[in-house]
Amino acid sequence: YMLHDQTQAAELERTFIAIKPDGVQRGLIAEIISRFEQKGYKLVAIKLVVPSKEFAQKHYHDLSERPFFNGLCDFLSSGPVLAMVWEGEGVIKYGRKLIGATDPQKSEPGTIRGDLAVVVGRNIIHGSDGPETAVDEINLWFKPEELVNYTSNAEKWVYGVN
Ligand code: UDP
Ligand code: MG
């Protein structure tokens, strides 16, 4: 019935989140994961990888005409990136809220970039900007078998349904 459908919807929405090399090197992995975890979202995939420049270009293909594209792809491929998939109701849009505006000078305090970053070229985190990019980015970064299906013990408390 209806409550059951809400639970299903919550389980279906997934977004791709990555801590970029600056966030990893600054020791911000635990802090950033905590924010998604404490909100009530469920971690379904995670790995530490150094992407190649070609891979970074694929990830940021939408920005290939922008002047910062080459430097951005060099940077993303310069060191370890923590790639993750997070799941939950509204996680794509609300994940972007948790992250804050692209330019940390404009990110609100309380957001990840607002609290932890200063300049746009070192804004520590990536998050998918919509449902289509979320699917594309999850498929680019993860094989299907790397996505872990499990029931979170917290779910019935986060969503208030059984
Ligand atoms: N970026 C940059 N200079 C700019 C705009 C963006 O270096 O003027 C970088 C920044 O790291 C940003 C990434 O390019 O996170 C991707 O840009 P996008 O507009 O997709 O921002 P995001 O979705 O990450 O907020
Ligand atoms: Mg973007």
Model description:
Major role in the synthesis of nucleoside triphosphates other than ATP. The ATP gamma phosphate is transferred to the NDP beta phosphate via a ping-pong mechanism, using a phosphorylated active-site intermediate. Shows the highest specificity towards GDP. By secondary structure, the chain is an alpha+beta fold. Helices cover 44% and strands 15% of the residues. It is built from nine helices and four strands, in the order αβααβααβααβαα. It has helices at residues 2-12, 21-25, 29-39, 53-59, 69-76, 91-99, 112-116, 131-141, 155-159, and strands spanning 14-19, 42-49, 81-87, 125-127. The protein has a four-stranded antiparallel β-sheet. The relative contact order is 0.23. Mean pLDDT is 94; it is low at 1-10. The structure holds uridine-5'-diphosphate and magnesium ion. Uridine-5'-diphosphate binds at residues 63, 68, 72, 102, 120-121, 123, 126, 129.
- Gross geometry: globular
Structural class: alpha+beta
Distance between the termini: 12 Å
Q: Kindly report the average pLDDT value.
A: 94
Q: What does the radius of gyration come to?
A: 16 Å
Give unreliable regions as ranges. 1-10
Name the hetero compounds present: uridine-5'-diphosphate, magnesium ion
Order of helices and strands: HEHHEHHEHHEHH
How many helical stretches?
9
Strand content: 5-15%
Strand order of the largest sheet: 2-3-1-4
Total strands:
4
* Percent in helix: 40-55%
Largest sheet: 4 strands, antiparallel
GO molecular function, one term: nucleoside diphosphate kinase activity
Subunit structure: Homohexamer.
Protein name: Nucleoside diphosphate kinase
Cofactor: Mg(2+)
